[in-house]
Write a structure and sequence with these properties.
single chain; 151 residues; Collagenase (Catalytic Domain); two-stranded antiparallel ribbon; 4 helices; 43% helix; globular
Length: 151
C-alpha cells in the first residue's frame, strides 16, 4: 500500500482495486479513448479501492448537491463504501468542431483526470480540495500524450 493512502489503508484488505469505464450511450470515439486511457492509468497509478467511471451522454451532470458540472467524484465518508466518478460526454461533438479530435479528447480525458486527483486526495485524507487539481490533472494528460500518438 502506498504510504500516502493512510486513510484508505485499513479498508483495502481483501478488496478489489482498479478503475473501470462504464456507459454505452455516449459517443463511441470518446468511450474508446477512455478505455485506452484507463488501461494506461492502471499501469502507472495505484487504484487500491475500485472506482467505476460512468459516462453520461449528456452535456452536463448534476451532483447530489445540485451543482451543474462536466464531471464529479462521489465518495462516502465511510471508506468501506465504493466511490464513483461520473463524466458528461455530450459536448464532445461541439468540442471536436471547435478544437479538433485530439484536443477535444484531451479535454475529455482531463475531466476524468481531474476527478481521479480527487479520488487520490480522498484516499490520502478522507476529503477533497481543488488546490492544485487542475495542474496535476493536466500533468497526467500530458504524460499520456507523450506515450501515445493520439488519445
Amino acid at each position: 500500500m502506498d504510504r500516502h493512502f493512510r486513510y484508505a489503508e485499513p479498508y483495502t484488505h481483501n478488496r478489489r482495486g482498479g478503475i473501470h469505464i462504464r456507459g454505452a450511450r455516449g459517443p463511441r470515439e470518446v468511450r474508446e479513448a477512455y478505455k485506452r486511457y484507463a488501461r494506461w492509468l492502471r499501469q502507472r497509478y495505484p487504484f487500491p479501492i475500485f472506482v467505476p467511471v460512468y459516462l453520461s451522454p449528456h452535456e452536463t451532470i448534476t451532483t447530489i448537491h445540485g451543482e451543474i458540472c462536466s464531471a464529479s467524484f462521489f465518495y462516502w465518508l465511510d471508506p468501506t463504501l465504493q466511490p464513483h466518478i461520473r463524466v458528461a460526454t455530450g459536448d464532445y461533438s461541439q468540442l471536436r468542431k471547435e478544437r479538433g479530435r485530439d484536443n477535444a479528447l484531451a479535454e475529455m480525458l482531463h475531466s476524468l483526470s481531474h476527478e481521479l486527483v480527487h479520488y487520490w486526495q480522498w484516499l490520502e485524507r478522507g476529503d477533497t480540495t481543488e488546490r492544485g487539481v487542475v495542474v496535476r490533472a493536466w500533468g497526467m494528460v500530458n504524460r499520456y500524450a507523450q506515450d501515445v500518438d493520439h488519445p
